[in-house]
Amino acid sequence: MYSLFQLLNRIWVRVYSLIIGDLFANKAIGLRINYPSTILNPKMIKIGENVVIKEHCWLNVFENKEGNALTIGDGVYIGRFCHINAKINVYIHSNVLIADRVYISDTTHVYENNDLPIIKQDCRYEGDIVIKEGAWIGCGVVILPGVTIGLNSVVAANAVVTKDVPDYSIVGGVPAKLIKTIA
């Protein structure tokens, strides 16, 4: 019975991926996106080949006139319950591993009017996010606007990244600090 469930699940993932894959800015070859996931404005997302997006992910892309707000390179793995917010530019290079429950956003909420609930105020773009090739983003990480994660770098679980991470580095903590450089 379990193997029948696995087979049906694999078939469903392929069908769902084919349907969703045609909505992106480009043809998403080899995409595996697990249901349920929420993708807002997929036409603003450029996606590479052989990308895996696990269950319950939320890719929230604001409409803009700049072009693709979210770019995902080849061979990227995005774990369960991840939330990526992109207003202008979030760029995830190839072969990046993003573990479960990661939050990435190039925006912050505006709080300028005391008479208006925050939910009814705008989101403001604060800076590009770039995650370079081969990086590993651990479980529960928060990546704030204006940050670059270096080539083949590791961000330890539950870190909050507020500043750039150098290439070939391991960072961790709140806020994330350099633990080790691999050279």
Automatic annotation (TrEMBL):
Cellular component GO terms held in the UniProt record: cytosol
Name of the protein in question: Acetyltransferase
Pfam family, one: Hexapep
InterPro entries: Hexapep (IPR001451), Hexapep_transf_CS (IPR018357), Hexapeptide_acetyltransf (IPR051159), Trimer_LpxA-like_sf (IPR011004)
CDD domains cross-referenced by the UniProt entry: LbH_MAT_like
Family: Belongs to the transferase hexapeptide repeat family.
Keyword list, A-Z: Acyltransferase, Repeat, Transferase
Gene Ontology molecular function, alphabetical: O-acyltransferase activity
Organism: Labilibaculum manganireducens
